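Long-time lurker, finally posting.

We've been working with Glycerol-3-phosphate cytidylyltransferase (Dubosiella newyorkensis) and I want a structural starting point before designing mutants. I don't trust myself to interpret raw outputs, so I'm hoping someone here can both generate the structure tokens and explain anything notable. Sequence follows.
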Amino acid sequence: MKKVITYGTFDLFHIGHLNILKRAKELGDYLIVGVSSDEFNKIKGKHCQISDKNRMEIVKAIRYVDEVIPETSWDQKVKDIQEHDVDVFVMGDDWKGKFDDLKRYCEVVYLPRTEGISTTQIKDTLKEADHE
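Top reply, 14 upvotes:
Generated this for you. Predicted structure of Glycerol-3-phosphate cytidylyltransferase:
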């Protein structure tokens, strides 16, 4: 069985999130998704609209996803790859080159993002509408 892993915050779940999960699943038989915890997002300087518990439930409900784990630190990826016997590590191409060090543990794939949509864009649009 070919295992794939990816990570994300998945706040304000949108079609771009769904597309990357679908394409990641197409690279293997079993998809593991690490969802960034609220505490980890604070370290990254992010504030989510949806709690980590609820974001994990949303991602878990996606048919392409076989398992959801919490992402609590930058350095857990090697441990996750080894513990889950992962064959392919996937991230969006906005991270291209950032995880090449993981190539010694598994294949690393950077998938193109969905054009015209991002959580940041949604948040900015909502802020603009709130100020009108």
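Before you design anything, note these points.
The mean pLDDT is 91.
Strands lie at 3-8, 30-36, 67-71, 88-92, 107-111.
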